[in-house]
Amino acid sequence: MIPPTAPKTDAPSGEPPLVSIIVPIYNSVAYLAQALESALGQTHARLEVIAVDDGSSDSPESVIERFQDDPRLRFLRQENAGPHAARNHGVSLAGGDYIAFLDADDWWLPEKLSKQLARFEGREGLGVVYSGRDWCDAEGRLYDTDQAPLRIVRRDRPVAELLLGNVVPMSTAVVSRGVLDAVGPFDESLPCASDWDYWLRASLHCWFDCVDERLAVHRKWGGQITANRLAQAECGMEIQRRFLEANPGAVDAGVLRKAWSKRYARRGRVRGALGDRLAAGRDLAKALWLSPGNGGAMADFGRLVLGRLREPVAPVR
């Protein structure tokens, strides 16, 4: 593993590091103020917020005007090109030693950055620190996520851990400048899961750490830009294929089989929920052939036979 280069820093001696917070905006004016308040209200006050409007039609300027007296906020506009193009635009203008990402419909707890930055102190090779998060609906009601424990990436095998699934929520990540420079921009050509693609590439350059607390809240609502479930599953398979072709030998054969088993199981679950039982059966059978211990695929195969295979929906609490 190649250790990251030292983070860029222009901070005077004794000054805390500067954190650049990138906020891509697209038709989320109803939630934007809460996101910006949570960013500007961090206990780590040495920060800049770069809000990039990705061609919204709902006038985010009306919200930005409320914060015009805070010099830490910068507002930019671009033609609609997708959230990762907006993130790349923001990163290109960021001056921070660390970069954090916050979606315009999510928000943070006040101590989020302080707790994450503390993890970087004196830890050579650490490039990404993420955290847990809560989920809420459009009205801000929290989902019951108690049954979903946070997965923590092991230092000695970040590539393998991330290949088995994206465990780094975008709005929780803080990334060192050195890693961003080494990895390069988000892939704007991907229709979805460009964040997972990015973390996979980053795992070749650094190790990851996690603050095992829910320091962010992710909102699920009808206006979000999401591909359909089948397209997402197939996009995940393509990202995995490209990464493994570009990095042969990155993981051992056992991890490789488990990773492909998860991909086939995911697509099979979606196909079954959409009513394509034959294709679902093929995918789930392939998942079990690759990894007979894939309990999720086995359970989904049973549900498929009984006609009860559905996509899970988190209950509201």
TrEMBL record:
The record's InterPro entries line, in alphabetical order, gives: Glyco_trans_2-like, Glycosyltransf_2, Nucleotide-diphossugar_trans
**Where would I find the Glycosyltransferase 2-like domain in this sequence?**
20-165
CDD domains assigned: Glyco_tranf_GTA_type
Q: Which SUPFAM superfamilies match?
A: Nucleotide-diphospho-sugar transferases
Protein name per its UniProtKB record = Chondroitin synthase
- What species was this sequence derived from? Pseudobythopirellula maris
Q: What is the lineage of its organism?
A: Bacteria, Pseudomonadati, Planctomycetota, Planctomycetia, Pirellulales
